[in-house]
Amino acid sequence: MNDVGAPSGGGRQTEGLARYRRALGHVGTVELWLALVCFAAVVCLTIYLVTLRYGFDGAIWWAQEVSQMMIMVSYFLGASYVYKTRQYIVVSFLFDRFPKRLQLHVYLLTQVLVIAFCCIIVFELIAIAESQLSMRTVILHIPRFYGTMPLFFASLSMIATSIYYSIAVWRAAAGRPEEGLHDLEGPLLINRPVS
After folding, report:
1. b/e for 7-17, b at 16 or more Cβ within 10 A?
2. Which of 69, 76, 93, 179 is in Cβ range 3.0-4.6 Å of 150 for a Cys bridge?
3. Do the beta carbons of residue 136 and residue 144 sit within 8 Å?
4. How many CB atoms lie within 10 A of CB 129?
5. What is the pLDDT of residues 160-191, one digit of tens each?
6. What distance in Å separates the CA atoms of residue 85 and residue 6, rounded to the nearest whole number?
7. Over the stretch 6-20, which tens digit does the pLDDT of each residue have?
8. Residue of 113 and 105 predicted with greater confidence
């Protein structure tokens, strides 16, 4: 396979890994927009409900379940996007003191643990799918399974993301063993953080 430059100008990637990264980037963009739209819709719906309730003594009967579903979409897809862009909080004062080789091993172990945890979530959601499809929500009477879909898709996305970062950082470390983990991972980010 031929090496191609990473879009950010960082390390080198095979064409297949670069395509995988771009596909994850598109998924990340969709996750971000869905999370933002759902969050904004929940805020608008809540403002409307508060105005309706306290201003006109009215209510919307379906608003609670719709808001709850949109919050689930916003939270889980937003978390998956944050994981792609590495915008989560990291306390690394001890980790940064480890030898470079040990940092890589701990990093790869962490990716494997994320994959294992997300796989457990996916398999458990599949296991309960039949019962969740037969159970209905109280207000809208839709299958409860739909409430688990954001977690299901976010878990699949995080598995794919961890696979990418494991392979990409491992390849980058093989070519530049003297560099720290932050220097290796930085140019390989799937999506750029939103400022």
Report:
1. beebbebeeeb
2. 76
3. yes
4. 14
5. 999 999 988 888 888 776 777 777 777 788 87
6. 15
7. 444 445 678 888 888
8. 113
